[in-house]
Amino acid sequence: MVGKATKEATLSVLGMKCEHCAANLENALLKADGIEKAKVSFATKTAQVAYDESKIDLSGISNVVSDAGYQVGD
C-alpha cells in the first residue's frame, strides 16, 4: 500500500542489453528495503520506482542499480 511517505521516481538506466537485464534489475530493486514497487522497461531503458523516503532515498536506489551492474543516467 502506498503511504504518505511514499515518493515516486522514473530513472534512466544505462547498461541493460535485453529483457533479462530488466527483469534482473527489477528483482534487485524489489528486494531493497524501502522500495515498494518497481517496474523496469528494457524498451524505454527506465525504472519506475515507488519508495518509502524514510527508508531509502534516490542515492540509495542508485546504489541498488549500480550493485546490480547498471548505471543511472541523467
Give a structural overview.
The chain is α+β, with helices and mostly antiparallel strands and 74 residues long. 31% of the residues lie in helices and 34% in strands. It has 2 helices and 4 strands. The protein has helices at 19-31, 58-67; strands spanning 6-14, 35-41, 46-52, 71-72. A hairpin with a 4-residue loop joins β2 (35-41) and β3. The longest helix has 13 residues, at 19-31. The radius of gyration is 11 Å and the shape is globular.
Give a short summary of the structure.
Residues 7-73 form the HMA domain. Helices cover 31% and strands 34% of the residues.
List unreliable stretches of 5+ residues. none
What sort of overall outline do the alpha carbons produce when their principal axes are compared? globular
Question: Measured on Cα atoms, how large is the radius of gyration?
Answer: 11 Å
Mean pLDDT: 94
Measure the end-to-end span: 29 Å
Order of helices and strands: EHEEHE
Strand content: 25-35%
Largest sheet: 4 strands, antiparallel
Give the number of DSSP strands.
4
SS-derived structural category: alpha+beta
Count of alpha and pi helical runs: 2
Strand order of the largest sheet: 2-3-1-4
Provide the helix percentage.
Answer: 25-40%
